[in-house]
Amino acid sequence: MYEKISPPETGEKITFAEGKPIVPDHPILPFIRGDGTGVDLWPASQKVFDAAVQAAYGGKRKISWFKVYAGDEACEQYGTYQYLPEDTLKAIEEYGVAIKGPLTTPIGGGIRSLNVALRQIFDLYACVRPCRYYAGTPSPHKTPEKMDVIIYRENTEDIYLGIEWREGTEIVKKLIEYLNTDLIPSTPEHGKKQIRLDSGIGIKPISKTGTQRLVKRAIQNALRLPKEKQTVTLVHKGNIMKYTEGAFRDWGYELATTEFRQECVTERESWILSNKEENPDISLEDNAHKLEPGYDALTAEKKEEACAEVKAVLDAIWESHGNGKWKEKIMVNDRIADSIFQQLQTRPGEYSILATMNLNGDYLSDAAAAIVGGLGMGPGANIGDSCAIFEATHGTAPKHAGLDRVNPGSLILSGVMMLEYMGWQEAADLIKMGIEKAISNREVTYDLARLMEPPVKPPLKCSEFADAIIKYFG
Ligand SMILES: NC(=O)C1=CN([C@@H]2O[C@H](COP(=O)(O)OP(=O)(O)OC[C@H]3O[C@@H](n4cnc5c(N)ncnc54)[C@H](OP(=O)(O)O)[C@@H]3O)[C@@H](O)[C@H]2O)C=CC1
Ligand SMILES: O=C(O)CCC(=O)C(=O)O
Ligand SMILES: [Mg+2]
């Protein structure tokens, strides 16, 4: 069935029912080693996973690893330009859960991202990137322990989909002409705007389907968190891009207030309800006045809209959510993308789950990882309804490749997410404990070592950090 690979002789497949994995005691898990620092990260990480599973289950459970190829290694095995062989896709499809090291994407020309291709091929629509602080980790931030967020980044659309045309090509000329002479003039709100003829064009599609299935997963995750962490923040730049970024926000709220009506309250709804709780006889207009700080300056039409909003909310949910009951619900709010970057720096403790479109989530996940110790501590998962691929937030860090020096923490923590996803919590907990103890004993790789006060000299190698984690299981 496969051209150049064979699955391990022992082990069984993970299957899926209603979007959840059913995991045997000896699952077969495909892995991609990865390019660049993948050569260092994968062996160190696999050693930790195997040791944790052995320590937690004493042989009752065991992972059978299935090596599959992508990136440079695939070209060595399968031939030039065979970056993502059919064998690899078949194996991931068949076995359902996989883990991977980073893969290189050239800038400008060349192949499009293999990482993105995998997410799209398997419709892994939720890129889940938790950023939490491990005690003792050095950070440029004064209170990194307050950061405990999970980014739910939409993983299949937005500009990352890569639908774009190069400047000067026939197709882009045709497209610009069509836009300039037909589409733009026929949309009055665009006025006299025109696209420069020497432009490249990229398309940024954001769908209701893509948005709502992502936000649904974010809310479902919030339902599993302790009360004080039950907030879902929709991140967008809807003030500028109304029909993509703004629509993401609107569709997110729509989902929260329909499918999760009993479980959720929006921030604006909570203000309307609390205005009435403070003054049970408050008129609709006074309530709207408190809701909209600039109410007096609004046009009559806008004032009417605000009063109608207040009435609609009270009619719909006063019974179910009023008299403080909303405080027990998941709070759904929204923040503009640039503003959330500064708020994560200044008030990280106010946020819990951030639901984002693809590009905003890409930036935000690297930025959030920086606060909790850097990209060496940023894990991730790409989750769909019948497949999941776990991988770190960072890339191949080529200048460090093959030196056994980078921090495997991010890939190891991606494996922790995988073990949790599989329901193997005991093994996951051992690894988290090992990481925490290694860091608090200053047994760390170069990236954390240089930030520590006093700096740790010499830092541990990548492989030595894995050994330190395992040492602290006992
Ligand atoms: N999912 C994936 O496979 C991803 C792939 N990529 C691809 O990776 C390639 C390189 O991208 P680049 O922009 O350099 O970004 P990288 O994330 O690979 O590296 C940027 C910097 O982050 C730090 N860093 C990264 N990984 C680690 C680690 N494990 N431990 C400690 N520090 C780390 C290093 O900082 P310093 O040197 O300052 O210590 C490194 O130079 C590109 O081809 C890109 O497309 C990028 C992101 C994700
Ligand atoms: O695929 C790539 O090269 C980059 C991916 C990336 O930056 C990410 O997933 O965060
Ligand atoms: Mg990125």
From TrEMBL:
> Which reactions does this protein catalyse?
D-threo-isocitrate + NADP(+) = 2-oxoglutarate + CO2 + NADPH
Instruction: Name the residues that bind Mg(2+).
Output: 362
Which residues bind NADP(+) per the record?
104, 407, 446, 450
Tell me the residues on which N6-succinyllysine occurs.
100
Q: How is the cofactor bound?
A: Binds 1 Mg(2+) or Mn(2+) ion per subunit.
Q: Which residues form the signal peptide?
A: none
Q: Sites of the modification N6-acetyllysine?
A: 142
Residues where Phosphoserine occurs? Answer: 113
Task: Identify the residues that bind D-threo-isocitrate.
Answer: 113, 115, 119, 129, 153
Q: Name one GO molecular function term.
A: isocitrate dehydrogenase (NADP+) activity
Which EC number(s) are documented for this chain? Answer: 1.1.1.42
* UniProt KW keywords: Glyoxylate bypass, Magnesium, Manganese, Metal-binding, NADP, Oxidoreductase, Tricarboxylic acid cycle
UniProt xrefs under Pfam families:
Iso_dh
Instruction: Give the record's GO biological process terms.
Output: glyoxylate cycle; tricarboxylic acid cycle
Isopropylmalate dehydrogenase-like domain residues are 28-469
What does the record give as cofactor? Mg(2+); Mn(2+)
- In this chain, the site described as Critical for catalysis is at 160, 237
The UniProt entry's sequence similarity note says: Belongs to the isocitrate and isopropylmalate dehydrogenases family.
Subunit info here reads:
Homodimer.
- Protein's name according to its UniProt entry: Isocitrate dehydrogenase [NADP]
Native source organism of the sequence:
Roseofilum reptotaenium AO1-A
